[in-house]
Amino acid sequence: MTNLSDYSSETVLPISSSKRKIKWRALICEEAGGRCHWCNQELRAEQGFMDSATIEHMIPQSKGGGNERWNLAAACHRCNTIRRDTDADTFAVIASDFLQDTRSIEEVAVINKRARRQRKRQRRRMLDTMPVFYNVFNTIFDKIWRLA
């Protein structure tokens, strides 16, 4: 098994495919002691947890950061999502106030199911309130439909 210590800090990690991404995520998390770089939350592997492990770019890719090993850290999903492209020093102060996630798998599954239902209802409401725009095809189809 490849260990991250085999790679220098200048090594660009090959994280293009999903299998490699999972492997590197696990190795980076292992190197970080299984904790989030920002909030020190324990990184759990179960699906659905907001603190599942992600790869965090210290200098965001949108600001020119690459996949060099020195630029990657383990982070929980919450911190990685909230941070976006915020400066690392600024976000470190924000993340220090985050509370630890102590929910069980069952609790999170129920919450995620409710959230999916709510998003589905919102999409339906949005589609129901959208005005219908007729193009040439709709107009021709309506005329043919009336003749039939």
Structural description of this entry:
This protein is mainly α. The protein has two domains: 4-95, DNA Binding (I), subunit A, CATH 1.10.30; 105-147. Helix content is 45%, strand content 7%. It has five helices and two strands, in the order H-E-E-H-H-H-H. It has helices spanning 18-31, 77-83, 88-95, 105-129, 136-147, and strands at residues 53-57, 72-76. It has a two-stranded antiparallel sheet with strand order 1-2. The protein starts with 17 loop residues before the first helix and ends with a helix.
Indicate the CATH topology of the largest domain: DNA Binding (I), subunit A
Number of domains: 2
Number of strands: 2
Largest sheet: 2 strands, antiparallel
Average pLDDT figure:
77
How far apart are the first and last residues' alpha carbons, in Å? Answer: 69 Å
Provide the CATH architecture of the largest domain.
Orthogonal Bundle
Strand order of the largest sheet: 1-2
Roughly how many Å is the radius of gyration? 23 Å
Look at the structure and give the CATH class of the largest domain.
Mainly Alpha
Shape: elongated
SSE topology string: HEEHHHH
